[in-house]
Design a protein that fits this description.
Helix content is 44%, strand content 20%. It is α/β, with parallel strands linked by helices and 90 residues long. It has one domain: Rossmann fold. GO terms for molecular function: carbohydrate derivative binding. This is SIS domain-containing protein. InterPro entries: GmhA/DiaA (IPR035461), SIS_dom (IPR001347), SIS_dom_sf (IPR046348), SIS_GmhA/DiaA_subfam (IPR050099).
């Protein structure tokens, strides 16, 4: 509902799900698409139901413990933040 309320064309939704099957994230992706937003997903394993639903999918193809996938997700988020900050100061 939040995405429906505040999402605008050109905005970007970042959806995170270790399994790729989180129902609330899938609904947020659907809402973002309806709003004309871009979608980036961070998933794990085989991408689950979220596989192929994003403009950019960063998938950690690890089938072991979920915490390993989440550790990589954290690193990716930190890198994305750094890149965004660099662009904002230009």
């Amino acid at each position: 509902r939040y995405v429906e309320a505040v999402g605008r064309p050109g905005d970007v939704l970042l959806g995170l799900s270790t399994s790729g099957n989180s129902a609330n994230i899938i609904k947020a992706i659907e809402a973002a698409r309806a709003q004309g937003m871009k979608v980036i997903t961070l998933t794990g394993k085989d991408g689950g139901k979220m596989a192929g639903s994003a403009d950019i999918e960063i998938r950690v193809p690890h089938f072991g413990y979920a915490d390993r996938i989440q550790e990589i997700h954290i690193k990716v988020i930190h890198i994305l933040m750094l890149l965004i900050e660099k662009e904002m100061v230009k």
